[in-house]
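Troubleshooting: if your tokenizer reports a length mismatch, compare your output against this known-good record of 98 residues.
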Amino acid sequence: MKALISTLLVLLAGSIEAATLRCGSALISTDDSTSEVIAKCGEPRSRDFLGYREIRDSYGFYNEVPLEEWTYGPRSGMYHFLRFEGNRLRSIDSKRGN
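Known-good structure output:
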């Protein structure tokens, strides 16, 4: 039983860590707006337009929103990739640079 609880805690900690990124003394997390990310992290190294995605809003209507990937880094040897749908941060991935 203790092993199961320990495993669940490790998995939860990993998913929480993946949803946030520290920029200096500020912290960004999924669902932050593009303006919040710029205010906390500054301009990204690059911005890549990936296309459009159709999403359904809370009223049941479908809208096309732009998809973007912003790259920050290297910071301590890591590159951070932020994916936005419309104006909202949806995922944060990191990869060690060469």
